[in-house]
Design brief:
There is one protein chain. This protein is α/β, with parallel strands linked by helices and about 425 residues long. About 30% of the residues lie in helices and about 30% in strands. It is built from eleven helices and 21 strands. The protein has a nine-stranded mixed sheet, with helices on both faces. The protein has a five-stranded antiparallel sheet with strand order 1-2-3-4-5, with helices on both faces. A three-stranded antiparallel sheet has the order 7-6-9, with helices on one face. α3 (about 140-150) packs across α4.
């Protein structure tokens, strides 16, 4: 007998008897372990059967009485002298695996990993959940498809370094036609023909986990995109239990995951919902978008908000440039690197220190000479409070900027200092 056991599916192949048994959806119920069991026959071993299906039933694995009754029922469908022993072995092994979970291992003296611990550097750590969050309508699906494309086909571009893995896109919001067209346009922009594994989802992820586990094993999936979290938790965005259930389910799949998330009206600086979103994700990136009306391009900025290993990475930007076909439909999408500081909208995602530094760096007259600014001017231009501005200016004086004259500040290494100048 050959067996294959994971968190959600136990498979037993009794080649000597020409039968396969699959145990799924195991759960504890009033002290008993119950599960769905599927019995299939090998038609080469049992040519008298019309099809391989023998039985599919929900069974109490803990009950000897129901096991005897199940064996008799199976005997009427496929006569075997060994049903009692087979059922005893299957039920006991599945109960043991269900109770034991993962085995204890030793850590501390294992060889250090030599491979890059990222599936997509610097954004996505390998075998860990990553959240990308932002308001609606800023291109989160385009970004997640672009990331999927790079990982699936091992393409290094725009400062993003992937390790190849098969990707499964779990779509809770759009549809296959919309995402197919977007992926085709992104692929055309790279001069490639690309396909991804896609699944239309309509129930909470935790209720779909057995089917997903099968698909991941069958297709050798290494990364899952969850688009988006709200539907994946059944709408219970503020509830700790549903949030934890989703993360635990993803963890049980033992793959890298990217969870696309939204923001609330009250707080646009964090993923919407339960605090466990922030606690359970190993990596969190904020996404900001900028697009003018009738513009054929969209700029997004990505800001690293959390990591559980290593340092926070610098923000970076991407520009999505859209080209239409003759009918006015998006035909090609090009993606370019972009400095987040160059766009006034996504620049606001930078730290206040970085915003001040950029303002002073670009505050020049027509001759290219730096112009000193007062705290009032800096606070006004950046929409900050004067006391906060003065504190930061004082903290970084001499490091990122210099004082100049009476209460003025100027870029740290100006080619020529000018106290007062008009544009």
């Amino acid at each position: 007998m050959k067996e294959s056991l994971n968190y959600h599916v136990h498979e037993y192949d009794y080649n000597e008897f020409g039968i396969k048994i699959k145990v799924t959806r195991l759960e504890q119920e009033k002290g008993d372990v119950k599960a769905y069991i599927k019995f299939d026959a090998d038609l080469y071993k049992h040519p008298h059967l019309d099809n391989p299906h023998i039985m599919f039933t929900r069974h109490n694995l803990s009950s000897g009485t129901t096991r005897i009754r199940l064996g008799k029922d199976l005997e009427t469908r496929l006569p075997l002298d060994h049903w009692a022993g087979i059922l005893e072995q299957v039920c006991s092994k599945s109960i043991d695996a269900f109770w034991q979970g993962s085995p204890i291992i030793k850590i501390g003296k294992q060889p250090k990993r030599k491979e890059i611990p990222y599936l997509l550097y610097p954004m996505v750590r390998k075998n860990a959940p990553c959240i990308i969050f932002g308001p609606g309508g800023i291109g989160k699906s385009y970004l997640s498809l672009y990331i999927s494309l790079l990982v699936q086909h091992n393409i290094t571009i725009s400062g993003l370094l992937p390790q190849q893995a098969n990707v499964l896109y779990l779509d809770y919001e759009s549809g296959d036609e919309d995402l197919n067209d977007r992926l085709a346009a992104l692929s055309k922009g790279l001069g490639l023909e690309v396909e991804l594994n896609y699944r239309y989802c309509h129930q909470p992820l935790v209720d779909d986990i057995v089917a997903l586990s099968d698909m991941i094993l069958e297709n050798d999936i290494g990364m899952v995109i969850v688009d988006a979290k709200g539907a994946a938790v059944g709408g219970w965005i503020n509830e700790a239990r549903q949030t934890m259930d989703m993360f635990n389910s993803l963890r049980s799949l033992n793959v890298t995951s990217i969870i696309i998330d939204h923001v609330s009206k009250e707080n646009a600086d964090a993923p919407i919902g339960s605090i466990y979103n922030f606690n359970e994700a190993r990596n969190i990136w904020e996404m900001r978008g900028s697009q003018n009306v009738d513009s054929d391009s969209m700029i997004v900025g990505l800001y690293h908000k959390k990591t559980n290993s290593g340092k926070l990475h610098k923000p970076f930007g991407l520009e999505f440039v859209f080209k239409d076909d003759e009918q006015g439909n998006i035909d090609t999408v090009y993606v370019n690197e972009k400095d987040v500081a160059e766009d006034p909208v996504i620049r606001k995602g930078l730290t206040i220190t970085a915003q001040i530094e950029y303002l002073l760096l670009n505050n020049k007259n027509s001759n290219g000479q730096y112009i000193a600014m007062s705290p009032d001017e800096i606070a006004r231009d950046l929409g900050l409070k004067k006391p906060d501005t003065e504190t930061i200016l004082s903290d970084w004086e001499g490091k990122k900027w210099n004082t100049h004259g009476a209460g003025l500040y100027i870029h740290k290494t100006p080619p020529l200092t000018v106290k007062d100048e008009t544009w």
